[in-house]
Amino acid sequence: MDPVTAAPSLEVAGLAFAYPDGHQALFGVDMTIGRGERVALLGPNGAGKTTLVLHLNGILTGGAGTVTVAGLPVGKKHMAEIRRRVGIVFQDPDDQLFMPTVREDVAFGPAAAGMRGPELEARVQKALSLVGMAEFADRPPHHLSFGQRRRVAVATVLAMEPEILVLDEPSSNLDPASRRELADILRSLDVTVLMVTHDLPYALELCPRALILSEGVIAADGPTGELLGDEDLMGAHRLELPFGFDPKTVKASR
Ligand SMILES: Nc1ncnc2c1ncn2[C@@H]1O[C@H](COP(=O)(O)OP(=O)(O)OP(=O)(O)O)[C@@H](O)[C@H]1O
């Protein structure tokens, strides 16, 4: 059976948000993402992508509209449950790693949720194995390379066994092999993925569907290959493919 079901994992309706200085970043975002989908969130600098992502687990709140995760409204009442279900991997792994060892960083979330002993250790091992970092458990995160720290940051989020994995620029600063290995990891996971990226070939490789956020609204929603092949649409939203890259020659992901 197709793992993508009609049940929405994430629903955003009429989300509008202005920062305290009055800058309006979102103007009524509507999007629905089904369970098990992998979706790329594209858009030019300043479009509102990070602002939107920060609403998905309640880091930002207080605007108009609603965000619903697996049927639960994002808000104070369900915050612990929402944070367990929606894991965000930030662009800079150093925002996520602050403990003396990799093991402690990965254990942090489940331990804060009350997990202890062998169950906690098994959870940590599983998350580190998923990202190929099991043998680094006793190392200090700041002794690792950037790409290794990005993998550990992904593991800290996977350790919470989220339903929705949100990644902000996951391929940035990765060498080609690390970039491909991270793609393989993401493809192997049984979670809903929303990936913010300026790396359009990566979006095409990994995400069958893409959304274009532009000036605080969803300007397009469709198969990634079709959107990237639409020159007028791309031009209108300041999106450019790398020189010589033809989306039609790349086998889009499924
Ligand atoms: N803390 C803040 N206070 C005021 N305005 C902000 C704040 N953070 C972001 N903005 C503004 O909100 C708008 C959307 O920013 P956001 O970071 O969400 O865009 P983005 O699509 O993620 O951009 P990028 O691709 O450059 O990361 C921008 O105009 C930005 O200047």
Write a structural description.
The chain is an alpha/beta fold and 254 residues long. It has a domain at 8-92 and 164-249: P-loop containing nucleotide triphosphate hydrolases (Rossmann fold, 3-Layer(aba) Sandwich), CATH 3.40.50.300. 33% of the residues lie in helices and 24% in strands. It contains nine helices and ten strands. A six-stranded mixed β-sheet has the order 6-7-8-3-9-10, sandwiched between helices. A four-stranded antiparallel β-sheet has the order 2-1-4-5, with helices on one face. Helix 3 crosses helix 4 (117-130), helix 3 packs parallel to helix 5 and helix 4 (117-130) crosses helix 5. The longest helix is centred in the middle third of the chain and has 14 residues, at 117-130. The protein is globular, with a radius of gyration of 18 Å. Residues 19, 21, 23, 25, 43, 45-51 line the site of adenosine-5'-triphosphate. It comes from Streptomyces longisporoflavus. Part of an ABC transporter complex. Responsible for energy coupling to the transport system. InterPro entries: AAA+_ATPase (IPR003593), ABC_transporter-like_ATP-bd (IPR003439), ABC_transporter-like_CS (IPR017871), ABC_transpr_CbiO/EcfA_su (IPR015856), Co_trans_ATP-bd (IPR005876), ECF_ABC_transporter_ATP-bd (IPR050095), P-loop_NTPase (IPR027417).
